[in-house]
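Query structure, 152 tokens:
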């Protein structure tokens, strides 16, 4: 499965906000900690805000927070918001773009395999919450002995 740069940046931003939850985090802090271009991150965070995954806070201490608890947001939800429908192969993509079946549907047995792969990937993405990713991150960072960047 290929994740776009936008999807990867969105996931990194939401993970960072999960690590800081419920604190308000500035866009500059997120961009700096994950080497995300600021203007691109602004666009991504606005998309996530419109989808009601994030809340923005104005003022001197303004920034972003999660709109829901980390255990209520899946990585699949974030990726779907910023990237749209997942597609594993050109076979499945053909159906999505053309609103009908592939012309080789009767002579190719691969479509069901690609659908099974897509279903398995989506299952993992939609069952994996940012709370789980937060715990994995803190566990991994703690083993390395450096978790100052993720103080809660």
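Result returned for the query:
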């Amino acid at each position: 499965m290929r994740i776009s740069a936008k999807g990867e940046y969105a996931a990194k931003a939401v993970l960072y906000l999960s690590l800081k939850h419920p604190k308000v985090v500035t866009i500059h802090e997120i961009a700096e900690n994950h080497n995300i271009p600021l203007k691109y991150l602004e666009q991504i965070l606005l998309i996530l805000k419109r989808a009601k995954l994030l809340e923005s806070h104005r003022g001197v201490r303004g920034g972003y927070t999660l709109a829901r608890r980390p255990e209520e947001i899946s990585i699949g939800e974030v990726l779907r918001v910023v990237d749209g429908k997942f597609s594993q192969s050109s076979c499945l993509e053909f159906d999505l773009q053309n609103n009908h079946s592939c012309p080789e549907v009767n002579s190719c047995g691969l479509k069901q395999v690609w659908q099974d792969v897509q279903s398995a990937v989506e299952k993992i993405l939609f069952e994996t919450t940012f709370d789980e990713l937060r715990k994995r991150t803190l566990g991994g960072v703690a083993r390395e002995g450096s978790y100052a960047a993720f103080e809660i």
